[in-house]
Amino acid sequence: MATEIGSPPRFFHMPRFQHQAPRQLFYKRPDFAQQQAMQQLTFDGKRMRKAVNRKTIDYNPSVIKYLENRVWQRDQRDMRAIQPDAGYYNDLVPPIGMLNNPMNAVTTKFVRTSTNKVKCPVFVVRWTPEGRRLVTGASSGEFTLWNGLTFNFETILQAHDSPVRAMTWSHNDMWMLTADHGGYVKYWQSNMNNVKMFQAHKEAIREASFSPTDNKFATCSDDGTVRIWDFLRCHEERILRAFEWDHVWRIICITGDET
Questions:
Q1: How far apart are CA 73 and CA 55, in angstroms?
Q2: Could you tell me the pTM of the whole model?
Q3: Taking the domain 112-258, which CATH number applies?
Q4: Tens digits of per-residue pLDDT, 21-37?
Q5: Where are the domains of the chain?
Q6: What is the DSSP-derived secondary structure letter of residue 69?
Q7: Per-residue CA distances from 20 to 17, 42, 206, 235 (Å)
């Protein structure tokens, strides 16, 4: 004789809670607006800035387009005409790809103004060899490294004790030469590491330039002289006090004064 065994009865318990009045939503409370305003004003002791959209100019698509066209374009006969229409934006190439049309390299559109934290005169501006960053030398002796795509500064370096007057890159893109108002010259690597400093003139240096082989460089100063230096030995080889050259048709450099 079979017997049915049912499941045991379940224990049912309803807890009794005290009646609570409905609370307002957290974002509707009056104290929440005040707390949110305080959080927007201060964060870790600093004032927070609103998020802004940065304008970016990316030249990489134009460079890639130029490299792709160089495979099948022999000369200007194979180049396709670019019309003044938005549909031809994808066909734009760097100025080196349109040497037959010099107007392609004329910059007529204003893009952006960037200011340093400490506002002071900027005496020299140079692009880095790869063209991605911009180096500026100011009257405070600081180098400011700017991003060439988003126009914001990346780092600030105290390079000289006096205003930076001259800045130039070597032809092999490995060395940067800078000179200041006190007559000092400094060698810099591409990673902004200073490796050498010496005094080339007793007065302010206005310009510096490398020779085509990068073995020599010339500096001109307010003392009225142009000095030729050996780059490796940092040794002065010659002083030019007037307009002179040794070859009939090959001129090394030309100098000028205020008159």
A1: 33
A2: 0.67
A3: 2.130.10.10
A4: 555 555 555 565 666 65
A5: 54-111, 112-258
A6: H
A7: 9, 36, 81, 89
